[in-house]
Amino acid sequence: MLILVPKALEREDLSTFRGVLDAAEWEDGASTAGANSARVKSNRQLPTDGEASRRLGARVVSALLANPAFVSAAIPLRIFPPLFNRYDEGDHFDPHVDNALRGDAMTGARLRADLAATLFLSEAEEYDGGELIVEDLYGSRRFKPAAGDLVLFSAGSLHMVTPVTRGARFAAFLWLQSMIRGDEARGLVHDLDLSIQDLAPRLGRDDLDIRRLSIVYHNLIRSWGEA
Questions:
Q1: CB-based contacts of 14: which residues, under 8 Å, 6+ apart?
Q2: What share of the chain is helix, strand, coil (3-state, %, to 5)?
Q3: Cα 193 from chain centroid?
Q4: Model confidence over 132-172: pLDDT tens digits?
Q5: Where are stretches of biased composition, namely Polar residues (predicted)?
Q6: Residue 86 marked ligand-binding
Q7: Known binder of ligand: residue 96?
Q8: Does 159 count as an annotated binding residue?
Q9: What is the b/e burial string over 42-65, where b = at least 16 CB atoms within 10 angstroms of the residue's CB?
Q10: pTM passes above 0.70
C-alpha cells in the first residue's frame, strides 16, 4: 500500500506545530533507529519522552482518526505515538526498512508495524532535497508534498529521505498496526470502500447495490480483521 492523504493536518494546526518545533531542543535522530538503520541515518528529532513530542503526537493521532481517507486506507487498530524529526542541510536517511515491532518505553505498549506514515510539516519551497522515496511493486515513487499532507506506506517497504541541500525539513512520523494484517487484503477492502464512496452520491445510500457492497465491505473486515 502506498497512498498520499492530502490535508491530514489542517492549516491552523500547522501554525501551532511549527511554533513549537522552531523553538524546540532537538537530539540525535539515531536514538530511535534500529541497529541497522542507525548507521544510515543523519537527522535530529524531538526527545520521545518530552512534553512537546507527546502533546503534538496526541494531536496528530486525533486528526488522523478523524480523517476518513486515512481511516479507510489504514483501518488502524493501534497507533504508535508519533515522533518528530528535522533534516537540516546535509542530513539524510539512506535506504532502509523499518523494524517489524515497535515498543514505547514510556507506556510499555508494543505493536506490529504494518504501516508507516510521514506527515510533512514544512512547505516544499522551504527546503531543497529531502524527498521521501518509497519502493513498491511499481518501482520508486518520490514525495515532496505540501505541509499537512501525509504519505502512508507499508512498513516493510524500502524507503529513504534524500539529502537536504537548503533549508530545514520538519515532519512527524509514525507506525501503526492495522486491523487487517496483509497489504493485499487491506488494499482490496480500501478499493471497495472507495467504490462505495464514489457510487453512493450518485445512486443514494438506500440503493440496493450500495447496501450489498456495504455488507460485503463489513463482512470482509470481520473475516480478515484481528482482535
A1: 121, 147, 148
A2: 35, 30, 30
A3: 20
A4: 999 988 789 999 999 999 999 999 999 999 999 999 999 99
A5: 33-46
A6: no
A7: yes
A8: yes
A9: bbbbbbbeeebbbebbebbbebbe
A10: yes
